[in-house]
Specification:
The protein is an alpha/beta fold. The protein contains 15 helices and 24 strands. It is about 25% helix and about 25% strand.
């Protein structure tokens, strides 16, 4: 396996230095039994593949197809993914190189999948199931992992109809942007769907597309009184800013763009660059039933930094945000919040999906978003059960906190822990593994019976708060078995009442359990409409709870009430 890794890395170097040479198509290596055996320990989030490969796509029991996949040498797990559907007159290799997509992938660290015409044809009827199967194959998880929220769809020539019908109708939730290069024959009825979608239609003529364009404008709630244009786009329809539903991460970014040009259906690297820059602005929330849109942000946009530390020979990383005031002066000590992502995600992605960086800036605390272990699969997760065959995430979190506290003026009595999904389950385990280290903990989508590893004992109490969504994968009501398990376990753990104090805040129904002194040590909350995801408005709820507490020198919980503003 180590030889395999070396050969893959050398291939990446060769490909990156020879852009003028036709990209060699490689055969997939034997799948590793353990990702840890082949991972680059200096860059664990990098896929073990680099370059172009032809992969099998099983369409049905009687039909097997192939697709060309390309991994940038810098492709990291959870980065962007583009599915490209060529016209009948194109090959996958032509799309990759002549279309400029390889250069785009290399510059932006992307993963591409390019479908392949069968017998030189991409007829709609024969290829609808093929594109569905290819979408499924893209989320293979054997060698790589692509995040559905950053999945984009592009179609050329006679495949433009296929892409429009597939990406703008029943499968719209699978993509965060669609671009078609070629004239469309689909009617508005063919792609009716209420879901918004950033879309750019390149066409040779507009006469037959007026009704379709109008339908997309209405679908995306775009302005019609002010039509913009650019070097590449003939018409740009901007979304209205009014009425955006921010509760579930929706943001008004679904533009409709139209370009009328004689070469609209041809491979054009300049068009490809413009299309990618357009699509990459959007990300699709894929929280099991909430396919809303949000802007894509990079860490640099916020002023956050990527920090690393070596743990047992493996480079571990976290995204770190220090509020402006603390960067300008070191007067006083501030709280530290640790935020753990869900399964198959990473710290950067989690920071993007939450509102905690803005809150850290406003309320003056440091926040870190660590990335989980890669030792047991092709995507980051957390070793919450502390399996000795996997990377020690408890050691990593402990070392990370110590490193941050050594380099920044952190109030160690106010260390807070929050996690979503698997990160929330890990949060519940960590307050036992690191008994008395955190002043309070919180989680979302994580009230599940098997969260706590067996045999753990506690010396110190820890206030804890969990938000569950009405449409969550797990317990969806106060009466559910998962809710009862969480409440019973932590009420006993924190010596609270068995009957809650109930109150409502907007869409949040709260059940609070207090100790003998009236301190709210356990809180379980049901959020209306919320699926298995992290949303913008829950952040304030979480910080409001966490910031009420600090840890005394003797390990006792100190209740201070209200939001602690460290500014």
């Amino acid at each position: 396996m180590k030889v395999l890794l070396a050969s893959l890395l050398s291939s990446a170097i060769l490909l990156g230095s020879a852009s003028a040479v036709t990209t060699p198509v490689q055969t997939l290596p034997e799948a590793p039994t353990r990702f840890a055996d082949v991972v680059d320990t200096t860059n664990p989030q990098k896929t073990i593949l680099s370059g172009a490969y032809r992969i099998p796509v099983k369409v049905s029991d009687t039909e097997d197809r192939t697709a060309l996949v390309y991994f940038s040498p810098d492709y990291q797990q959870t980065q962007g993914f583009i599915m490209i559907v060529p016209s009948s007159k194109m090959t996958a290799e032509q799309c990759l190189e002549k279309g400029g997509w390889k250069d785009i992938a290399d510059e932006n660290g992307l993963f591409l999948m390019i479908l392949e015409p069968q017998d030189g044809k991409m007829e709609f009827g024969d290829n609808l199931e093929y594109i569905k199967a290819a979408t499924k194959a893209a989320n293979d998880r054997t060698y790589w992992f692509e995040v559905k929220c950053r999945r984009y769809l592009v179609g050329y020539g006679d495949s433009a109809d296929l892409v429009a019908r597939y990406g703008l109708k029943d499968n719209a939730s699978n993509f965060a942007g669609v671009v078609t290069f070629g004239d469309l024959t689909v009617s508005p009825e063919d792609i009716q769907k209420d879901m918004d979608m950033p879309v750019w239609m390149f066409m040779t003529k507009k006469d037959n597309e007026t009704a379709l364009i109008e339908q997309m404008i209405e679908r995306n709630d775009c302005k019609t009184d002010e039509v913009l244009s650019s070097t590449e786009a003939t018409e740009i329809y901007m979304p209205n800013q009014q009425g955006a539903d921010l509760r579930l991460n929706s943001q008004p970014l679904s533009q409709v763009r139209v370009t009328v040009a004689r070469d609209a259906a041809k491979l054009n690297p300049e068009y490809s660059v413009a299309a990618y820059n357009f699509m990459r602005k959007g990300t699709r929330e894929v929280g099991y039933g909430t396919p809303s849109m949000r802007y894509t942000h990079d860490a640099e946009d916020w002023g956050a930094t990527v920090e690393t530390v070596e743990i047992d020979g493996v480079t571990r990383k976290w995204l770190q945000y220090v509020p402006t005031k603390l960067r300008e002066t070191s007067d006083g000590k501030v709280p530290l919040m640790v935020a753990l992502h869900g399964n198959a995600l990473n710290g950067e992605y989690f920071a993007e999906r939450t509102d905690f960086i803005r809150m850290a800036e406003e309320y003056g605390f440091v926040i870190v978003f660590p990335t989980g272990s890669m030792s047991n699969g092709s995507s980051p997760t957390w070793n919450k059960d502390r399996n000795p065959n996997e990377w020690d995430d408890v050691k990593f979190i402990d070392t990370m906190i110590n490193t941050v506290c050594e380099n920044l003026p952190i109030d160690t009595s106010r260390l807070y822990l929050y996690g979503h999904s698997m990160g929330g389950m890990t949060t519940q385990a960590l307050i036992s593994y690191m008994d008395g280290r955190f002043a309070a903990a919180a989680g979302t989508g994580c009230a599940k019976e098997d969260c706590i590893p067996e045999g753990l004992e506690h010396k110190y109490q820890t206030p804890i708060f969990v938000i569950m969504g009405e449409n969550d994968l797990f317990g969806t009501s106060y009466e559910s078995a998962d809710a009862k398990y969480f409440i019973d376990y932590f009420s006993k753990y924190n010596d609270t009442t068995t009957e809650p104090t109930c109150y409502r805040m907007g869409r949040f129904q709260n059940y609070t359990f207090t100790n003998a002194d009236g301190v709210p040590m356990v809180r379980w909350t049901l959020a209306e409409e919320m699926p298995h995801t992290a949303t913008l408005d829950e952040g304030m709820q979480i910080f409001e709870f966490l910031s009420q507490f600090s840890r005394g020198e003797d390990g006792s919980v100190i209740y201070q009430g209200g939001i602690h503003n460290a500014k």
